[in-house]
Design goal:
Elements (H helix, E strand, L loop, with lengths): L12 E6 L1 H4 L10 H16 L3 E6 L6 H6 L11 H27 L5 E3 L2 H4 L12 H4 L6 E5 L1 E4 L6 E4 L1 H11 L5 E6 L20 E2 L18 H12 L5 E6 L4 H9 L5 E3 L2
Parallel strand pairs: 1-2, 1-7, 2-4, 3-4, 7-9, 8-10
Antiparallel strand pairs: 5-6, 9-10
Helix pairs in contact: 2-4, 7-8
């Protein structure tokens, strides 16, 4: 494995994605993994105390995907059950605010100031080319950690609404906010990118990946409405064109993030441009 960039500035700006499968149980409606959230909060505090800037994007997990799947929110307005869809969009937004509040409470309870930026308030459209200014996130006080998340957002007609993925938010933030040195996707069920689906006993960790290399993967369309590992890889490849350190790391081994920032390397998958 080739060595990652060794020359880092003393202060890093770390963009982290807390995966939905890491902070919730994706198969159980609105069920958080509080231990995981607490560990991520402690990781964030550790990075801040070392003098690094941190920006957080988190997924929806069981607070968004299940209702979005049930009511086909990704497909946009369906005239035959539009009223139910509109109710579902409002419900998803409220659920995401609840999940975000749980994460913010975990941070604030250990002394980490944070500011929340719900996309339904400032973003329109889906995909990495969604409309909406990142200026509030970029200009968030250095004393506070900005947090945003995957959400149900308004779209132009005839679609009317859709799901803006946290991975698409990662692309925009990673490419447009100056000074980000690390973009880390924290995963809930794997060491990084594997050579086969996690349930395959022959699966091995891929230590480096770029978009010229194909993978064997699975997308659980019953639980994930935003593209799963394939969207993450596509997003990470886009970010890697401008951010020097883009990684997939096991989110249950928070010490690996600290190891990466301190030494330039850790166990996981580095995404190359």
């Amino acid at each position: 494995m080739s060595s990652p960039l060794a020359e880092m500035s003393t202060m890093a700006h770390i963009l982290m994605k807390f995966g939905g499968g890491l902070i919730t149980s994706k198969s159980e409606m609105k069920t958080v993994d509080q231990e995981s959230i607490n560990n991520l909060a402690n990781l964030t505090r550790g990075l801040v105390e070392l003098g690094h800037r941190v920006t957080i994007v988190h997924g929806a997990g069981s607070f968004g995907h299940l209702k979005a799947k049930q009511w086909k929110i990704v497909e946009g307005a369906q005239p035959e059950f539009l009223n139910q869809q509109l109710d579902a969009v409002a419900s998803i937004r409220n659920d995401m605010l609840e999940l975000n509040s749980i994460i913010c409470d975990a941070l604030q309870s250990i002394g980490v100031n944070c500011n929340s930026y719900p996309p339904s308030n400032w973003a329109r459209g889906v995909g990495p080319d969604f409309h909406g200014s990142l200026s509030s996130i970029e200009n968030c006080s250095i004393e506070s950690v900005p947090i945003t998340f995957g959400d149900a957002v308004d779209c132009d007609e005839p679609k009317m609404f859709g799901i803006l993925s946290g991975d698409d938010l990662m692309v925009r933030i990673g490419k447009e906010i100056n000074g980000i040195t690390h973009c880390i996707f924290l995963l809930g069920d794997t060491e990084g990118l594997l050579s086969a689906p996690p349930n395959d006993p022959t699966a091995e960790l891929i230590e480096e990946w770029n978009s010229r290399r194909s993978i064997s993967g699975e997308h659980d369309s019953q639980q994930d409405v935003t593209g799963g590992i394939f969207l993450k890889l596509d997003s990470a490849a886009k970010i890697a064109t401008v951010v020097p350190n883009v990684w997939f790391i096991c989110g249950r081994r928070c010490e690996r993030v600290l190891e990466l920032v301190n030494s330039g390397n850790t166990r996981g998958t580095r995404i190359l441009p």
